[in-house]
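Practice problem: predict the structure.
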Amino acid sequence: MRVPLLRNRLMSAVAIGLVFAAQGAFADDHETKETWRLFVADHTDPVVRAIDFDSGKELGRFDVKGHAALTASASGQTVFATQSDHDIVHVLKTGILFSDHGDHRDLEVADVGLLPVTFEGKRPFHVVPHDDHAVLFYDRGGKAEIIDEAALLEGKAEVKTVDTTKPHHGVAVTMGRHVLVSVPTLEAQEKPDQLPPRVGLRVVDDQGTQVGEMATCTDLHGEATSARLVAFGCKEGVLIARPGGIDGPKLEMLAYPDDLPEGYTSTLVGGKTMQFFLGNYGEDKVVLIDPDNATPFKLIELPTRRVDFLLDPAEPRNAYILTEDGDLHLLDVIKGEILRKATVTEPYSKDGHWRDPRPRLAVADGQLAITDPRHALIRVVDAESLKEIRTIPVEGQPFSIVAVGGSGASH
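Answer:
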């Protein structure tokens, strides 16, 4: 009676060995590789460049119509080049594709290119990427467009239009089957061509019908998504949108507490692996925002006015802030403290036009890529030590920059 039992155990052991051997075979079937690409728009010339981050080699130079602001899609497969002064948006294919396989993700790398689809309308401005689409807002067009990325990559335009009531400098963000849309005042303006101020936020369903009442948000500006929440900067506080049921998202105002100095938030970024937001608070302060905390605001004062800031997607507790004195600050968002700083560029004053050439930040592979338009360089800085590692020469005045890439299995 013991022999069959022993045989079964032996057969089980052999089967397990075969499974492990098969797993090993699958593991040996691919290698891990990492690829990062920078997309850089020139401040003066109407051109966007694609650059290999490791080698610094230019992968492509794409002519557009004018000064371009760059926004990477959520997937990283496309980059939108918004040219507000020329009423057009071009879209670049990054050539980087990740596909998820549960325990790992695959990475495919192809050529970069300018897609044949363009979007035209009166003063396109804010582009908000989300999941498999992006929302493009036309300040003077009275509309926003929800753009399907998969169709874009096939050279087609699949667009759903959202009415924005009237032209204004606003924003639209999707949340499930609903869209959050800024609301302008209906009062007549002193000058016929003057855009009206924003006074609130409304929710519309997939038929374009408003759901519920407008939420007050004076001078609404700046938005970000973190986990399932969306935040908007307002004069009164930070307006939070939470997913709801069939009645649509729920809107909640986090009022600025009395112990904060005078100021408000108008630029926001959202945490990817932790639910929180980082926003400006005036020009020389930033604020950490935890919507579910009893005291949601944590103020951090800066020595001078900020030029740019962003979060590290791979190191969720790291944020980087560049100030006009040329110093880069590493902010620990858990402690709410600046851990260290280092000088990375010459001073760039915030005085002058808001779109004057100043450095911009991107994060790639544990390093920061910082445009230095005055010296025609991208400065590559170690994200922890804040020390410059190398520079990448770029013709002209490199300005707006995004980084796309990561690691994955290559079969």
